Amino acid sequence: MTDRQAEVLAVLGKLADAWNDGDAAAYASLFTEDADYVTFFGMNMPGRAVIESAHRSLFEGPLKGSKLVAGGGEFKVRFVRPDVAIVVSGGGSSLSDHKPEPGRESTLTYVFVEEPDGWRVASFQNTRVSDPAARAS
């Protein structure tokens, strides 16, 4: 792993820490001011202020006490320019025992940009993992 990859992945660690602490302000601070955050429902939360407000409501309500957990596979980090990285990873959340819960696994896609104060998420998409063939039967 390169130093640049480690810098980007460190931000993912900070995102997980903020989520696991239920700290919406710290979580949102890791996004750019104009970030797009697309939920697994397909809803876009545009901008850091909306991301913070929505997560505050989630952390105080239905996702209170939830924890982010790593998914299967490796993090894929690809630099499309020296100051722009795309990260694809698996992940999920747990509402009970800090273990991945069935049906809560996702493929996560991040676009990171390097700003003067460090790497920030400019775009995020959470897509639930499902097997369409299994649903058809």
From TrEMBL:
Residues 9-121 form the DUF4440 domain. This is DUF4440 domain-containing protein. It comes from Amycolatopsis lurida NRRL 2430. It holds the Pfam family DUF4440. It comes from the Bacteria.
